[in-house]
Amino acid sequence: LYFSLGGSKYIFHHCLSGVSVAYYLFFGEDQLYTYMVLIFEVTTSEINLRGYFDISGLKQSEAYLINEVAIFLTWKTARIILCSYMFYHIYKNYQITKILASFFQNQTSVVSIALSVMNLMSFGKTVKRLMITLEKDSEDTIFL
Predict the structure, then answer these.
(1) Strand intervals (E) in the chain
(2) Three-state DSSP class for 99?
(3) From the centroid of its chain, how far is CA 13?
(4) Which of 54, 104, 107, 132 is deepest in the core (most CB within 10 A)?
(5) What span, in angstroms and rounded, lies between the C-alpha atoms of 67 and 47?
(6) Could you tell me the pLDDT band of residue 4, with boundaries at 50, 70 and 90?
């Protein structure tokens, strides 16, 4: 059933994240970036709420519109701005991260880039969904 949840990208994202978090926790290297990445998950509650609105047939409600705006704002803040800061922090502190195990260096590079690309792709979908919702809402208010 994972195709209904996002397909292979969904599985890839969670496997990549799980391996990274497990590595950081078991080997105790650089938990700061793990915490930064875990803050990304603040968007999960709004995304789950969107699913409940969809299932309940409430896509036309004001609560759905508010939730779409909340998804946009939290996604932009937690996954785009914080992720950009994380890359800046890695770059700024490269001399420190350079002395860590080579596996960690690969983790920091590969995982951060892969998750960032996936976040940007999903943010694009979020913006499109918000624009569609706003357009529908503005059409409804014109005829009321």
Answers:
(1) none
(2) coil
(3) 10
(4) 107
(5) 8
(6) low
Contact 83, 116 (CB under 8 A): yes
Average pLDDT, the chain: 79
CB atoms within 10 A of CB 57: 8
pTM: 0.71
Given a contact cutoff of 8 angstroms between Cβ atoms, the answer to whether 85 and 99 are in contact is: no
Query: Of 39-48, 87-96, 101-110, where does mean pLDDT reach its minimum?
Result: 101-110
| Residue that wins the pLDDT comparison between 101 and 127 | 127
Crossing angle of helices 112-143 and 82-92, rounded to 10°: 160
The residue type of 44 is T
- For residues 59 and 142, give the distance between their C-alpha atoms in angstroms, rounded to a whole number: 18
Cα distance between residue 16 and residue 14, in whole Å:
5
